[in-house]
Amino acid sequence: MTATALTSFRASGTLYLSAPEAAELIRRLGLPLCLQQIADHIRADFLRWPDFDKSARTAAHSQGGVIELMPVADAHRYSFKYVNGHPGNTRLGLPTVMAFGVLADVDTGAPLFLSELTLTTALRTAAMSALAAKTLARPDSRVMALIGNGAQSEFQALAFQHLVGIETLRVYDVDPAAATKLVNNLQGSGLHITVCDSTAEAVRSADIVTTVTADKAMALILTPEMIQPGMHLNAVGGDCPGKTELHGDILDTAQVFVEYEPQSRIEGEIQHKSADFAVTELWQVLRGERPGRTGAEQVTVFDSVGFALEDFSALRFMMDSALRLGLGERIALIPQLADPKNLFGLVSGTAASGAARDALELAV
Amino acid sequence: MTATALTSFRASGTLYLSAPEAAELIRRLGLPLCLQQIADHIRADFLRWPDFDKSARTAAHSQGGVIELMPVADAHRYSFKYVNGHPGNTRLGLPTVMAFGVLADVDTGAPLFLSELTLTTALRTAAMSALAAKTLARPDSRVMALIGNGAQSEFQALAFQHLVGIETLRVYDVDPAAATKLVNNLQGSGLHITVCDSTAEAVRSADIVTTVTADKAMALILTPEMIQPGMHLNAVGGDCPGKTELHGDILDTAQVFVEYEPQSRIEGEIQHKSADFAVTELWQVLRGERPGRTGAEQVTVFDSVGFALEDFSALRFMMDSALRLGLGERIALIPQLADPKNLFGLVSGTAASGAARDALELAV
Q1: How many other CB atoms are there within 10 angstroms of residue A205's CB atom?
Q2: Which residues of B touch A90 (CB under 8 A)?
C-alpha cells in the first residue's frame, strides 16, 4: 500500500478530495458505516499509541478565534490538520469550524493526499466520542442528553445511536432554531427525540450527557446538581484555553479520561485543575493497561479536545475510500521534474518552453 | 483588499495555485522581477517584525529526512508552510525539498489561498539571501563563490546578480554534473561563470560565498583558512539539527546575523555555540536598531535557516500576482453551506439531494 500510494503520487500527483466529493463519499458509503469505520481506524491507531510521534497542537489565538495546526506521525505516515474555531463566523455565513489536512509519506515527505476536513472532523469527533462512550459508559445506556445542537450535533447523535446503542435523545440549545434543525435533520433516523427547555431538563434521567457548545467562554453548561450516579459525560465543546463546559466540582467526584494529557491540560476541562489532578489516557484503557469504569454508580467523564491522531485515522480512511470509489482528483501541488535536481528548468522557459506552451494550447 | 479576498472566498472558495501555474506566473513576470518583488515583500514584513506572532517551526524527524510546519501570523493574515527535506529523494525522481502553503484570514480562519511552494521557496530563499547580502556585504562585491550547485543554486545566482550586483560566479559541487547543469541553465544570463575543482579554489578571491549544500551531516564545507577579510558568507544549506556547513572557528571571528534567533539556535550554524554566543537578528539591522557590517575588513555571516515570515511574504506576493494575472483556480476545500450551522445538510442527502445531483448532471 505504501509503495502504491507513492507510485501514484510520482506518476500523477497529490490526490485531492474536495468538500463536495467528501460528502459524496459519505453518502455513497452511508454515514453509519463511515462512523463505524472511522471509530475502528481510531481504535486501531490508539492501540499502537507508542508508535506515534505526538505533540500538542500549535495555536494562533486572535480576538475572533483560533487557528491551529495538528501534526502527528508514525514511522510510515505523517499527517497534519489545519483547523480554525471562530464562533462569530456563522454571522458571516461561514462555518465556525473549517478544516483541511494532508496525509504524507514519511520516507520522502511526499504529500500523498489533501482533503477537506470540515465535514470529516465532525465525523471523527463523533466517532471518537462514541468509541470513548462504548469503552466507559454503562453498557445499558440508552438515553442521551445532547446539549448544543449546532453543526456537530447530528453526527454525535448518529454515532451514539449506531455505535453505542442510544435510542432516545433529550436535546437543548440556547437557540431554539438549532434544536428544530436537529429534529428535522434526524427525521427517519429511528431516534426518539425530546426537545427540552433547559440543560437541567435535558440531562434529567439521561445515561450519557454530550455537551457540544461553541462559545469561547467559561460557559459552565453542566453543574454538580444535574449529575446522577452512573452517568457518562462526553464533554466535546471545551477545547481551548478559557473554554470549558463542566463545573470543576463535577471533575473532582468523577473519573476523568482524556486523549493526550499534555494537550488536555492546556485546553480541556481539566485546564483549571492542578498539574497532578488524576486523569487516564483513553488508549491505556483500550489496551487494558488501566481500568475504565469501575462500577455502575461511578461518573465517568471523557474530556475530549480532539487530538491529531484522530485526524490521522480519519485521513487514512478517507484516502483509502476515495481510492476505492474513484473519488477525488490528482493535482500538481508539487512540481513534476524530469530531473529532480533541476528545479530551475521549470522557469528557465524562454523560446523553447514558450513554443511548447503554444503547441499545448493548439492541441487543446 | 482584506474584504475583497474574503468576499471572493465566500463566493467561490479557496484560490489554488498549482506548481505549473506558479511557474507560468514567474515566466510571465520574469524571474528577476519576482525575486525583487519577493525581497521587497520580505523587507516590508521584516520592518514590522514586532507585529508578528512568531514561533520556531515544528519538525518531525525520521531516518530519511524531516517534515516541518512553519506558521506565522499578524493581526490580519495567517500563513503556514509544509516543507520536507529528504536528501535521498532525487534517487527516486523526487525533489529533495517539496513544499506548499496557505495564506488565511485571521478574523475568520478562512483559507484564502493554497499554493505550491516548492518553486516559490527557492525564490524566497534566494530573495532573502540577496536582501541580507545587500544589507551586510561590502557594496563593491562583484564575485560570488557558489558551493553546492543543486536545485536552489540558479535562483541564488540570479538573485545576487540582479539584487546585489554580482557579475562573476565561481562554482563548485561534489557532483560535476550539477555544475554543468548550472552553467547550462545560466547561459544567456550575463553572469561570468568559472567551474572550480574544489571549494577552496571557488572561494579564493570571492567577495561573497554562498553555501547551499543538502547533505544532512556535519559537512564543514568552509574551513577557516579559506576565509579572507571582508568576505560575506551566505550559509543557506545548514538548516536543521546536525546539519551545518561552516567550521565553528569561522563564526568566532565573524559577525553573525540570523533571521529568528530561537529557531537558529536549534537549526543554524550556531547550533553548537553556547546560548550566549552573540548574534544579531537581521530585522534589527534593517530597522537601523543594530549595526550591520562595521568595516571593510570584517567577515559577516548570514546564518540562514529559512523563517516562516519569508513564506508569509512570498505567499502575499504570489496571491496578489495570481489574482492580477488571472492565474489559479477556485477550489472547494471548505464546504459552502446555505446555513453554516447545518453542516449535516451536506450528507443528509437522500431523495432530494440525489434528484438535485441528477438535475445538475443533465445541465452539464
Answers
A1: 11
A2: 340-341
